[in-house]
Amino acid sequence: MMKVKVDAEKCIGCQLCVQVAPDLFDMAEDKAVAKSETVPEGQEDICRDASQQCPVEAIPIEE
């Protein structure tokens, strides 16, 4: 089971993760947040993609 979160201290609010994976991430004011700590089955690849594209590496994944 994959888990994901957004490090609010690192997040710059660029919204790239929301654009890449709108089912997994949302904006809370000026920071991104994970909609759920547990990544739904079948969404792992898109979650990895969003994490890798984050310009400030604010999306750690636990596999």
Structural overview:
With 63 residues, this protein is α+β, with helices and mostly antiparallel strands. The chain has two helices and four strands; from the N terminus they run βαββαβ. A hairpin with a 2-residue loop joins strand 2 (25-28) and strand 3.
List the helices and strands and how they pair.
Blueprint: E1 3-4, H1 16-20, E2 25-28, E3 31-34, H2 44-53, E4 61-62
Antiparallel strand pairs: 1-4, 2-3
What is the global morphology?
A: globular
The stretches of 5 or more residues where confidence is low (pLDDT under 50) are none
Looking at the overall shape, the CATH architecture is 2-Layer Sandwich
As a whole number of angstroms, the C-alpha radius of gyration is: 10 Å
Distance between the termini: 6 Å
Overall structural domain count: 1
Beta-strand segment tally: 4
Number of H/I helices: 2
Strand order of the largest sheet: 1-4
In CATH's first tier, which class applies? Answer: Alpha Beta
Q: Indicate the mean pLDDT.
A: 98
Determine the strand fraction and express it as a percent band. Answer: 15-25%
